[in-house]
Amino acid sequence: MTISADITHGLNEQVFIPDASTARHYRNALGTFTTGVAVVTARTPDGPIGMTVNSFTSVSLDPPLVLWSPAKSSSRHRAFTAASYFVIHVLSAEQDRLSARFTRNGAGFEGLDWIENMEGVPVIPGTLARFECERSDLHDAGDHTLILGRVLRAAHREGDPLCFSRGTFGRFQSH
Questions:
Q1: Which of 39, 61, 83, 150 has the fewest CB atoms below 10 angstroms from its CB?
Q2: 156 in helix, strand or coil?
Q3: Any idea where the Flavin reductase like domain is (predicted)?
């Protein structure tokens, strides 16, 4: 493991080369980037499926493209990479419990009110924003797959976003 400190004029940074021996340092560095929280839903032959993610990002305004990236190690990876359509739901600051429903051991759609869109994909009402997408492309990206989607419909409402940083949920405060 190669970790050096104090090469940037006394800022006490930990400088390292990302590899297996520095995996925790790498995760900690990535965790300093605050993200929003989203739930991605799709339809499978076995029913609706969802996953909480923070890998959502916009790609293009014209054409309207977004992407997200599930881990290949996820039990839901194959279902999402096979789905022709998916919906990305951006969560509000009050929806941390909704995010927990779609983590590894969460309740998922059990007892949750939802509707289907025109493509048969589950839509969760009341989220901060929603992007209904048709899969445009898949790209191999190491231990993840980048799923690129063309946005067919979008919706949003006023409210504060749910934020995730350094392993913790929170909310954005402007100055």
A1: 61
A2: strand
A3: 30-171
Q: Which residues pair with 58 in a beta bridge?
A: 66
Torsion angle (degrees, nearest 10) of CA 71, 101, 110, 144 = -10
Token pair listed for 10: 């006394």
pLDDT classification of 145: cutoffs 50, 70, 90: very high
Predicted model pTM: 0.89
Domain segments of the chain: what residues? 1-31, 33-166
Nearest residue to 37 via CA among 101, 84, 133: 101
Per-residue pLDDT reduced to its tens digit, 68-125: 999 999 999 999 999 999 999 999 999 999 999 999 889 999 999 999 999 999 999 9
